[in-house]
Design goal:
The chain contains 6 helices and 12 strands. By secondary structure, it is an alpha+beta fold. It has a single domain, classed as Ribosomal Protein L22, Chain A, CATH 3.90.470. It has a 5-stranded antiparallel beta sheet with strand order 1-9-10-11-8. Strands 2-12-3-7-6 form a 5-stranded mixed beta sheet, with helices on one face. The protein has a two-stranded antiparallel ribbon with strand order 4-5. The longest helix is centred in the first third of the chain and has 22 residues. The radius of gyration is 18 Å and the shape is globular.
């Protein structure tokens, strides 16, 4: 498993995009905590409604509703359709071929664009790209980092994380590793189904890195970097190595 630094450029823009956009498009938004509008709920399909019943708290359900509604509204603008016309499914898992746990996809409209979703404690994110893409965000919170590192980090990541000062600095160092790993595995299409301590992300460095994972039959290499999000969260986006182009990051103004 090898890594090396490679450039990913980020820009903040308030302009609209669409299917003619190039490169990776990323949106983030603040989630109205604990509340949602009826118009948000009405956008969810039957599978999403069923998913709601499995969530353990009202806050989790409200965040799920708001995020799914936000994703539909963003994609509606991206594709030039009504939000009610956007529908989702899953691509087959590249590991086993199952469509039950493959990466999310846009079913309607038919498109070659790929998507990745993430949300964590009040922040939602969507990445859209003309190639496989993975995005992950985590809220910065109190974590027993020392108890987690052995199952998640490589030896070099472990040493770098524990070298950071205790408290928020160490937590951020750990979450930088975690979000990079999850972004890469989402881009690969498999999610967290592998030994994370084998996935070296060079996350001790703030710059982008190339990460090779052997989670699939043939090793794949991904370019992964931190994504600018509001203070209180950390995030990363991963795209196939060699794709080039910018990662454009925008705020979506969630209004329910």
């Amino acid at each position: 498993m090898t890594t090396r630094c490679a450039p990913i450029r980020h820009s903040i823009s308030a302009t609209s995009s669409g299917p003619l956009a190039t490169g990776t498009q990323v949106w983030w938004w603040h989630v109205p905590m604990g509340t949602y509008a009826r118009a948000d709920l009405d956008l969810l399909d039957s599978a999403e409604q069923a998913r709601l019943k499995q969530l353990k708290s009202a806050d989790a359900a409200a965040e799920y509703i708001c995020c799914r509604a936000a994703v539909r509204r963003i994609l509606a603008g991206f594709f030039g359709l009504s939000a009610t016309k956007i529908s989702f499914g899953r691509n087959p898992c590249p590991g086993c071929g199952s469509e039950k746990h493959g990466p999310p996809s846009v079913v309607h409209p038919e498109t070659d664009w790929h998507i990745s979703l993430s949300h964590s404690s009040g922040l939602g994110m969507l990445a859209v790209a003309p190639y496989p893409v993975g995005v992950d965000t985590e809220a910065v919170r109190d974590l027993a980092v020392e108890d987690l590192t052995g199952d998640v980090l490589t030896r070099r990541e472990h040493d770098a994380v524990l070298a950071a000062p205790q408290g928020p600095g160490r937590t951020r160092a750990f979450l930088r590793c975690w979000t990079r790993k999850e972004a890469v595995l989402k881009a690969a299409g498999v999610g967290i189904v592998t030994d994370l301590s084998r996935l070296e992300t060079r996350a001790w460095s703030p710059g982008p890195a190339e990460v090779t994972t052997d989670v699939l039959a043939a090793p794949t290499t991904w370019q992964v970097a931190e994504t600018p999000v509001p203070d209180g969260w950390t995030a990363a986006v991963a795209v196939p190595s060699g794709t080039g182009g910018d990662v454009t990051v925008r705020q979506f103004a969630f209004r329910g």
